[in-house]
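Supplementary Note 3. Input sequence used for the single-chain structure prediction.
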Amino acid sequence: MTNSATPIVNNFSAFFFSYGVKIIISIAVFIITYYFAHYTFKIWQVTAKKMKRPLRYPNTTYTLLKVAFFSIAGLIVLGIFNINLWPILASLGVVGLIVGLALQQPLGNFFSGIMIFITDAVNEGEALDIGGVSGVVYAIKLNHTVVDTWDGKRIYIPNTTVWSSKVTKFWPKIARRIDMQIGIPYTVTSQQLAKVSSILEKVMEDEPLVYKGDNYSKDKNYGPVSNFVTFNEFGSSSINFTMHFWVLRNDYFAAIEKVAIDVYKALNEAGISMPYDQLDVHVDGKLAAVNFKIDEKGEEKK
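The predicted structure, written as discrete structure tokens, is reproduced below.
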């Protein structure tokens, strides 16, 4: 019994000392790499904050940092096991082709993600629309771009879809123009109609939430803007004008509401009411008189 068990013990000991130690070291390398990447990112964040230049895309930066560190860890592990990849890749042959075809979509997402990083097409924190999905970009992963929609959903869009889709950025600069249509009733006099543009322009000038192009700076995406009023058309129920005014991102919804209230107040003070849809019906000819009688069964008859 003792003699038969000795080779097994010797083989196990040889295997453990040959590969077991290397496996344990490899696991330790990956664990150390994970914590090293995590704390490196934390140090980077703190340093950037102290320098008053905080990271613009922390989630995406953390993903790229982990990829870089784990790639180095993978090379270290291959060195521990003395593995040379080139003979293995050369010997795969048809199997490698099959695996490549199976991984075509993931690899396409991966390289599309790299192109997104390089071209700066989509950035973390941007409000945009990607192929009909609207929201704020949470992070750009290796295979997916993560978007938080306006109603609180989180959607993972494959990077190939992001790269090939039309991307609309809602706030490429700090300010954005709003086009608000204002209808004037046909009951106004010509003198009142002539004052409409100046009334609406004064509303935009007096409203502090309307951006006037202050603090002009190309570096900060501040720039000169033009707030103006245009005549649109003689509509079916109103004479239509459009107010074109700019607002900052943080003032977007508040500015729309405040300008609408200011316009309503200003037009009322000028004696101009806000119209509503109306339909005038004109009947030509005469309507024939129709007499109805009740028959014996209690039913109407002409």
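The mean pLDDT is 80. The chain has eight helices and ten strands.
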